Amino acid sequence: MNIVGIDIGGTFTDLVGYVDGKIVTSKTSTVPADPTQGIARSLELADCDPNELNEILHGSTIAINTVLERKGARTALITTSGFRDVYAIGRSNRIQAFNLFFKRPQPLVPRSLTFEIPERVLASGEVLQALDERTVAGIIAEIEAAGVESVAVCLLHSWANPAHERRVGDMLREALPNVFVTLSHKILREYREYERSSTTALNAFVGPRVEGYLKRLETYLRSGAFGGKIHIMRSNGGVMSIGQAQEQPVSMMESGPVAGMIGAGRLAKLLGLKRCIGFDMGGTTAKSSLITDGAPAIETGYVIGEEADGQPMQLPVVNIVEVGAGGGSIAWVDNAGGLHVGPQSVGADPGPACYGKGADLPVVTDADLILGRINPQRFLNGGMPLDKSASEKAMMSKVGTSLGLNAVEAALGVAKIADTSMSLSVRAVSIHKGIDPRDTAMIAFGGAGPLHAIAIAREIYIPQVIIPKLPGTFSALGMLMASWRQDFVQTFIGRVGELSEDAVNKVYAELVASAREQMKRDGISETEADYRFFADLRYVGQEHAISIPIESTAQLSGDTSEVRKRFDAEHDRRYSQSAPTEALEIVSLRLVLTAARTDNVAEEWLSRPWEPEAEVEVGSRDVVFDEASKPLKTAIYWRPALPAGFKLTGPAVIEEPNSTILIHPGDEVVVHEAGHLLVTLAKQSEE
């Protein structure tokens, strides 16, 4: 079995594969104009012939970047008469109560391209008003005249009865075969009109761009003799076929970062860590996720962008908190003399000043190079030598001169601000969730993650940091561990204990039928499938629900004591209180369908005994750690040469082909038997 995982980030394209019985890797610059060029280059660098591969797994930031940059298709929205402004109005809550400049999310579809059609379906699924096809035909003509590239159709209560929505979709495809069409019931079958409208609009907005990219990718791979499977990472931690990804690109919003968290979960389980925090720092952003019992948390509500003004998405997503601070984040000084880092990034082209491509904007990578933390001759295993003088020039021209600082002082300030910014994402998945960071460990990866993770962990008192093998390409490695997964949901509201067993069985039968249809399309057999059912429950009067696993429909319509017990316990775990005497209400029924991988080569490799490639040699150079000390003469190690059981105490820099680990003074490192680095932070005062 020859498989590879390819992760396209904003700055680098990473590859990890298991080919002919061994792990292969590569890291190359992303090509924003045509990401398939980066994929071709990564395969070439890893000496991988696509025609000899059985499976390619792929994750990309193209969908989420399309939303964040608002570079999607010209999109129209069709909805029910009287509900034209649901998407624009959104929710009435004010998330930032004291922000005088607070702005609500700006719709991806302008009001001028939002159309109403006469029709009405009740929440029961009953048709109150028939669809007016003549009006639909007129609207289609307007859409064509407006030069629309994509259409989102979200009719009221189509989650209960999608007949009208299906007919509108048929008319659109017949009249406008080149327009991308998204029907809300194909994306999700849940109530909440605003979130459903937003999710449908998101899919339509990114659809043409993502579909075009995936078609080019498939054409490139199939142009030779590659006949294997192409799987795309989903935001829920599973994978899907490339065909489904073209239809539902909204499902791959966080496909790259999620893969890294899946890998971190597997490593946490291997090391016996009950609770840890996955931390991924790449070139554009830094991401954090809380991992419990080897699995990251999955939420059904997510926001693309900032919480206050981002785009809501009502799909299962691995709970990742992201901040705009990465190796390529730009350092800049505002008019008041304040130093900032990010959220803007230089990306892959032209990249940091030190890449020597003519850029004059200083970024975090430039700061790390100036501080001596990065070896300019070993960057990307020596494949991209860095220009330190270019970094110093950019740092002085944009930061140092205006603030009266020399290059080292300015670089140290940039690094400190970046660390503080990134620590906010770690706090959001720990302290803000009621988790004491002192009871966790951090698993740090990404090209820049091991450089900054220990400083971040120290700031919030995380006692241990684990640097896995291949940290610089760890998200690509995580893809090799992801199972095929599909989530099916249907809104179904009623009192637990008062539900009709026939009604519950009918909904579950519909979910199973949809699941089997998707299995057939993707070539998944019944023997591979694992069906897991859930009920979204809440106390009567609450707004949001909690998903609780169930084994049979009788647990909802017959003896409900077990479901009641599970819900109260989960509510108490999350919110430190429960109300066992309050009535329970069901909101939705869910089916999570998975097909486990037939191989586990990546997980086996995580636990495979470590074999060093050479004798340990120790070099040295001056490295700046903080403003309280002068540059320290620091030991430099080559990680592939460190044997299992090897111990060292900081200050130290541990270099490897695609990443660098910064060990602060007093911190202790032990090489795990499988080659992972276990870093115990020096004890510090908490005052």
TrEMBL record:
Pfam families on file: Hydant_A_C, Hydant_A_N, Hydantoinase_A
Domain Acetophenone carboxylase-like C-terminal per the UniProt entry, residue ranges: 502-673
Domain Hydantoinase A/oxoprolinase: 196-487
Hydantoinase/oxoprolinase N-terminal domain ranges (all copies): 4-175
Name of the protein in question: Hydantoinase/oxoprolinase family protein
